[in-house]
Amino acid sequence: MENYTMLQFFEWYYPADGSLWKHFANEATRLKKLGIDSVWLPPAHKGMEGDQSTGYDAYDIYDLGEFDQKGSVRTKYGTREEFINCISAGKEAGLKVYVDIVLNHMGGADEKETVTVKQVIPDNRNEFMSEPFEIEAYTKFTFPGRAGRYSDFQWDYQCFSGVDYNATTKETAIYSIQNQYGEGWQDVLDLENGNYDYLMLSDIEFRNPHVREELKRWGEWFYETAGFNGFRLDAIKHMDPEFFNEWLDHLRGKYGQEFYTVGEYWSPYDLESILNYIEATGRRMSIFDAPLQANFFKASKEHSDFNLCNIFDNTLVNVLPELAVTLVENHDTQPLQSLEQTVDSWFRPIAYALILLREAGYPCIFYTDLYGSTYKDTGNDGKEHEITLEKIDKLEALLYARKHLAYGNQNDYFDDPNCIGWTREGNDEFEGSGVAVLISNADDQTKTMQLGTRHAGKTFVDYMGNVTEELVIDENGQAEFIVREKSVSVWGEKRN
């Protein structure tokens, strides 16, 4: 089978100029030629900040940049028409298009309601610090700009399990709403803060059957409107897994489509919780390998003190590779973001080699590593910073190696804490395939590795350009491969 690669086609600080959908449409053919096979697009709906919103503060999931709401018609990324057109352009170029689904919470309600709540202890949310009392809460969503087009469903406090703002006193806290569908929080698998159902804004109440049915209707409308291929699901660790079981089964059954799905269960140091979620959802979706991204972050900070032989320890790709989406960075981990855990630039080509050129996992490339980015924001230290992220110079070479070279049996040489490698022997299906990868987080290194006798006598070169020497594979199918300090070399057959 041909190797496939996903691209996250946005970053948190992409300019709010309405250009992203057109940008993707213009890039789709080039991306396919580079070796990209699927693209994850950001949330397409209107957020509470209108054309400045990234979409993760969902306001109206039926407004794809069509209605004058929250101060704009278009979203940050463009108009409804441009969104639909860009999906068509992606599919015409041979790409699968995955859309970002944000169903954990809503923000920017149109009206306040008087609701009964209990205030909870933030770091132990199963414990209440008050008796029931009334507050004014922003929980009434009427979408006046849309005026009932596509759906006349209006959201009120019965559709939410919690809020974080008391409009009566103008105080911010976490309030559990007392509604008819159950007292306290919904059951979720993640036990951080006692119960991590509540994340932000108005938390959607999935125990309400009217909510579940409305979201199924919306899923049908969204697919029939946009014609995408699959989903990226946001914030699933904060949601009852039974909801997405029901939602995905409904859409897959109705349309007879696979709807490839990857979920964001961001637990970098709790693999067991991720595996529990996979079990609870009956393997209906893949999951981003947050523990692997954390290992990359740690390795990049520790330099030669990090034991490269342990790079895949406690990772999803190591124990359940068929459901692991591997990544180096995303919009939440990039510099100045809430989950900032940025892999240092020297290690990024190494990390990409580890996800692109091995047989396990479905790799996802991050937008800034292909395009670069410059932006300003306030960091966790309270200070403003200007960030420039350079695109990875050799990322296209790695994509080429994945698409054309990284096939066949894999032989691992994880035998030195500062220098690891592996070979892929190649196969008959992909002419010229076969690759040897060598990584160092310390000094220049060499390692004798076996590629197979099918390559005997062939001349190999470093596709990364870090080593200029050429190597000839001996009669036994092996060679002494070279890597420069703190780098990766990707050895493949020399081509004319």
Describe this protein with a few key phrases.
Elongation Factor Tu (Ef-tu), domain 3; 3 domains; Immunoglobulin-like; alpha/beta; TIM Barrel; 496 residues; seven-stranded antiparallel beta sheet
Explain this structure.
The protein has an eight-stranded parallel beta barrel with strand order 1-2-5-13-14-15-16-17. Strands 6, 7, 8, 9, 10, 11 and 12 form a seven-stranded antiparallel beta sheet that branches. Strands 20-21-22-27-24-25 form a six-stranded antiparallel beta sheet, with helices on one face. Helix 8 packs parallel to helix 10. The protein is elongated, with a radius of gyration of 24 Å. It is 23% helix and 27% strand. The longest helix is centred in the middle third of the chain and has 18 residues, at 209-226. The protein is an alpha/beta fold and 496 residues long. Strand 18 (373-378) and strand 19 (384-389) form a beta hairpin. It folds into three domains: 6-105 and 209-400, TIM Barrel (Alpha-Beta Barrel); 107-204, Beta Barrel (Elongation Factor Tu (Ef-tu), domain 3), CATH 2.40.30.140; 408-493, Immunoglobulin-like. The chain has helices at residues 20-34, 80-92, 209-226, 241-255, 271-280, 290-302, 316-319, 348-356, 367-371, 395-404; strands spanning 6-8, 38-41, 46-47, 58-60, 96-101, 105-106, 111-121, 124-128, 133-140, 160-166, 171-177, 202-204, 230-233, 260-263, 286-288, 324-327, 362-366, 373-378, 384-389, 410-413, 419-424, 435-440, 445-450, 459-462, 471-472, 478-483, 487-493.
